[in-house]
Amino acid sequence: MTDSTLETTDRGAFYNRAVLITGGTSGMGLATARLLLDEGAHVIITGRDDARLARAAEQLDKPSGRGARLLTVRADAAVLADLDRLTAVIRERHGRLDGVFANAGVGVFQRTAEVAEDDFDHTVDVNFKGVFFTVQKALPLLDAAGGGSIVINASWTLHRGLAVAPVYAATKAAVHNLARTLGSDLAERGIRVNSISPGYIVTEMFDAANPDPASHEAIRAGVPLKRLGQAEDIAETVAFLLSPRSSYITAQDIVVDGGLTTAVPAS
Questions:
Q1: What share of the chain in percent tops pLDDT 90?
Q2: In degrees rounded to 5, what are phi and psi of residue 61?
């Protein structure tokens, strides 16, 4: 099934489409899975922890029994053997993929002098290597669908320097460029590739990096829309990019940040 043959009936814009979401057990990945399930998709989410996967599956099954269209697979995006197993499971279950949200990521927020080699390697392995090979391994499944759409989760930090995120920001800049390159490389296969750059979004990673609630007010004050983003804000953007509504958009980055990177708050 390609963009042009997608059913857009009252059964939902993603009716019968198969979409992979890596890192789907919380935050932006979980919110996107919920939205796509509401729109009729068959959704595959990954995570590295069985308990978190089980909890996510329970949350996504409520309140309407959507679990029949949900597949959870324990997989580490940085481990190629896990990605091979993941694609084999998807091939057996669905035979194809219509979309991919390469969302799995980690953040080590330290100043340059504090970064250890293990932190560097882990961040690069998940945020860059993991994204690249997630896409590569998914290609035969996207080809089986006659094409599709890939969305890569980047970050606002590729547009504006952040002192405590030298390695994290560099990996996000890498996948931002990767989305542009893949958009060129895969266009002839009918595969569109875009990235999104979320601003300050309330997730577990955000809370871990900003444990003091008082700091949230200072962060909010720097956002022209005067609020922190919600995971659902990202889910809506990802759904748009995965759908035929964006059929002439590829190799682009969509910034979803409340104006953080491009506008100065009025007061």
A1: 85
A2: -75, -20
Q: Which residue has the tokens 């932190």?
A: 119
One of 15, 168, 200, 248 is an active-site residue; which one?
168
Q: What is the pLDDT of residue 11?
A: 60
200 is annotated as an active-site residue? no
- pLDDT range class, residue 57, cuts 50, 70, 90: very high
* Nearest residue to 6 via CA among 146, 137, 138, 182: 146
At residue 112, does pLDDT exceed 70? Answer: yes
Give a three-class secondary structure readout of the chain.
CCHHHCCCCCCCCCCCCEEEECCCCCHHHHHHHHHHHHCCCEEEEEECCHHHHHHHHHHHHCCCCHHHHEEEEECCCCCHHHHHHHHHHHHHHCCCCCEEEECCCCCCCCCHHHCCHHHHHHHHHHHHHHHHHHHHHHHHHHHHCCCEEEEEECCHHHCCCCCCCHHHHHHHHHHHHHHHHHHHHCHHHCEEEEEEEECCECCHHHHHHCCCHHHHHHHHHCCCCCCCECHHHHHHHHHHHHCHHHCCCCCCEEEECCCCCCCCCCC
Q: What does the alpha-carbon distance between residue 164 and residue 169 come to, in Å, rounded to a whole number?
A: 9
Q: What is the pLDDT of residues 7-55, one digit of tens each?
A: 333 467 899 999 999 999 999 999 999 999 999 999 999 999 999 999 9
